[in-house]
Amino acid sequence: MLVLVGYLVVVGAVFGGYGLMGGHFGVLFQPVELLMIGGSALGAFIAGNNGKTIKATIKELPLLLRSSKHNRQLYMDLLALLYELLAKARKEGMMRLESDVENPAESEIFSRYPTIMADAGVMEFLCDYLRLVVSGNTDAFEIEALMDHEIETIRHEAEIPSHSLARVADALPALGIVAAVMGVVHALGSANLPPSEMGALIAHAMVGTFLGVLLAYGFVTPLSTVVEQKVEEGMKVYQCAKVTLLASLNGYAPQLAVEFGRKVLFSTERPSFTELDDHVREVKAR
User: Fold this and answer.
1) Which of 133, 142, 162, 255 has the smallest count of CB within 10 Å of its CB?
2) What gap in Å lies between CA 196 and CA 203, rounded to an integer?
3) Widest Cα–Cα separation across the chain
4) Distance separating alpha carbons of residues 205 and 214, to the nearest angstrom
5) Which candidate, 88, 55, 44, places its Cα nearest to that of 176?
6) Around 286, how many Cα atoms within 13 Å sit in the side-chain half-sphere?
7) Can you say whether the dihedral through the CA atoms of 153, 163, 228, 118 is positive or negative?
8) pLDDT by residue (tens digit) across 106-133?
């Protein structure tokens, strides 16, 4: 929703200022130049990316209009889930987690956290590493290195839409110049027209440069930035799970292990020690 609000501010500021200086809006209405700029940008996007990147970018765009799912409640649920799993392993033995890990859809523990189960990537990450821990003969340093490699891979894949949008934004000003040059060529090819009509044609041509820069820095670049921010938020889930599991592998009690995970979260979403402690107590009582 903030994306739409930002777009309204951009449009209001640019065209409102143009209107206040006495500009004529009819001159700015150049659908042909908009077609040239938008069509060439789309063509360059298709030509410069593979099918995987195109699909990932198209899939990501509608999600930018939604609020972030990575809020405080999500992280509290994640930490509570990890606490329950680690507490069960500490009390009953690590092998008792095998049924939960192999079939989380029927696990009593996992079923209490539908928001976590709804994220297939996080569930796969948790179950895979819990399965490694259950199998035994695991070294904390080797597990940490493997986690780092996987998180880096997840980050790289998640950043693909951001990078593709950033490249389109970089190309738009130049494509606007291309449209403007085509407009100037058209104007010079009509040199027999009176000066007033020639001036109008040149003004129309210059709109191409304006549209290219506006679309690049007012519309597409913000989308790339939002995707990048969402990626950083999403990585915290994996980092939180990683630190908590490693703390448990190194012998810390479940309540201390989830405290390790809490400390890696951003301050805006990080629950306080008391909030997390109360949430864990509620889980234990339940």
Assistant:
1) 142
2) 11
3) 92
4) 15
5) 44
6) 12
7) negative
8) 888 888 888 899 999 999 999 999 888 8
For residues 226 and 3, the answer to whether their CB atoms sit within 8 Å is yes
Residue 44's identity, in one-letter code, is A
Q: State pTM to two decimals.
A: 0.83
Q: Which DSSP letter does residue 269 get?
A: T
**DSSP track, 194-245:** -HHHHHHHHHHHHHHHHHHHHHIIIIIHHHHHHHHHHHHHHHHHHHHHHHHH
pLDDT digits (tens, 9 = 90+) for 152-206: 999 999 999 999 999 999 999 999 999 888 887 777 777 677 776 776 777 777 8
Residue matched to tokens 């996992």? 110
DSSP code for 110 = G
Token code pair at residue 207: 């709109």
Tell me the C-alpha distance between 165 and 65, whole Å.
16
SS3 assignment, position 115:
helix
The CA distances from residue 215 to 62, 108, 160, 227, in Å, are 18, 50, 20, 17
Return d(Cα 30, Cα 201) in angstroms, integer. Answer: 11
Find the angle CA(231)-CA(234)-CA(238) to the nearest 5 degrees: 125
**Phi-psi group of 254: left, alpha or beta (phi > 0 → left; psi -120 to 50 → alpha; rest → beta):** alpha
**Residue 214 is encoded by which pair of tokens?**
């506006």
